[in-house]
Amino acid sequence: MIRNSSAPPTSWEVARRAGVSQSAVSRSFTPGASISDATRSKVMDAARELGYRPNAIARSLITARSRIIAVVMAYLENLLYPRVLEEFGRRFAALGYHLLLFTGLKDRDSDPVFDQIMQYRVDGIILASTGLSSALAEECLAAGVPVVLFNRTTGRPGVCSVTSDNFAGGGKLARFLVASGHRRFAYIAGLASSSTNRDRQAGFAAGLAACGLPPPVVQVGNYSTQEAAAATRALMARPARPDAIFAANDHMAIAAIDTIRSEFGLSVPGDVSVVGYDDVGPARWPAYAITTVAQPVDRMVAETVELIMARIEDRSTAAESRVVGGDLIVRASARRPPRGLVERDGQLLYLGDTALPEPRETDR
């Protein structure tokens, strides 16, 4: 039989050349499938000779699995998310899955991209740095597609989420700054629609209240460099300017530090302490050296992968909301308290001052 060289080779041709069954060819290209090393080697040799590549779309029609996970991200300016994406890619690849990235708008829910996502017959959806409307939650449940929110929470039933303990992190930063002798506090807020921002702000205010101090002055930065710089200008122009600023993430903390130094000629932390959240790469640069609450990315990603894989295998698995604690890493952007510091794995951490009360969730 002479094959048509213009047509792509088929699994039948690979099986014939390797001297095996078509099912052996299929198993050879299926991660984790049961097949001997010798048979897989023969199949791979034949596939290379013919230039064969399995058709993932055709396989998904047969198996009802595309082995594709959709990831929706709306805020790639924040260097936390490229790191998160890389870690998702690594972990899903080890399970034989591939990522399909969709980008949305950071001030919107993910609804506009849902129709695009469903065209790819994805096995699951991870929403990172974006929200989930009631309508989208219901559509995903009706379609039987597992959804996990990453770094976001929702009160909607049937939806899984994984976040760091944002409320506790905000409280830690409040106690740290109080212990360092600050008394005039400000908060540069992210998006009002973001549960992450709301919890960090609530934890910060509750931490100050537990210490008998008023809530912080708030300016909105909307997770934007330009808006965070404008928020910093407004704060520093106040008659009683703050001596400590908590920016809702490191991305905005960098903008605040640059603005304070370049436009007001003030020292960080000599005149103003600035703290952030996330522990992205630039937070560790000597020029910024931001005191920040670290997002435990590896563990958060691992928890997300575990949740979505469990629901792919069994759609009846109950929804869970998992919260992961993070360390407060002390660097040079903030004055240091006399107590409560410990060095661990080459990093200086703030574990708390027993003389200060802990903020409570009920203080929200």
Description of the structure:
This protein has helices at 11-18, 22-28, 37-50, 56-63, 80-94, 111-118, 134-143, 166-179, 195-210, 225-236, 250-264, 297-313, and strands spanning 68-73, 98-103, 124-128, 147-150, 160-164, 185-189, 217-220, 244-247, 273-278, 291-294, 321-324, 328-329, 341-344, 347-350. It contains twelve helices and 14 strands. It is an alpha/beta fold. The N and C termini lie far apart (76 Å). It folds into two domains: 63-164 and 297-324, Response regulator (Rossmann fold, 3-Layer(aba) Sandwich), CATH 3.40.50.2300; 166-295 and 326-363, Rossmann fold (3-Layer(aba) Sandwich), CATH 3.40.50. The longest helix is centred in the C-terminal third of the chain and has 17 residues, at 297-313.
Main sheet summary = 6 strands, parallel
Overall mean confidence score, pLDDT: 85
Structural shape: elongated
Structural category is alpha/beta
Could you give me the name of the CATH homologous superfamily of the largest domain? Response regulator
Taking the alpha carbons of the first and last residues, their distance comes to 76 Å
CATH class of the largest domain: Alpha Beta
CATH topology of the largest domain: Rossmann fold
Number of helices: 12
User: In the residues, how many domains can be counted?
Assistant: 2
Q: How many extended strands?
A: 14
- Uncertain segments of ≥5 residues (pLDDT<50)? none
* CATH architecture field of the largest domain: 3-Layer(aba) Sandwich
Helix % is: 25-40%
Strand-residue proportion? 15-25%
Radius of gyration: 25 Å
Report strand order across the widest sheet.
2-1-3-4-5-11
H/E series: HHHHEHEHEHEEHEHEHEHEEHEEEE
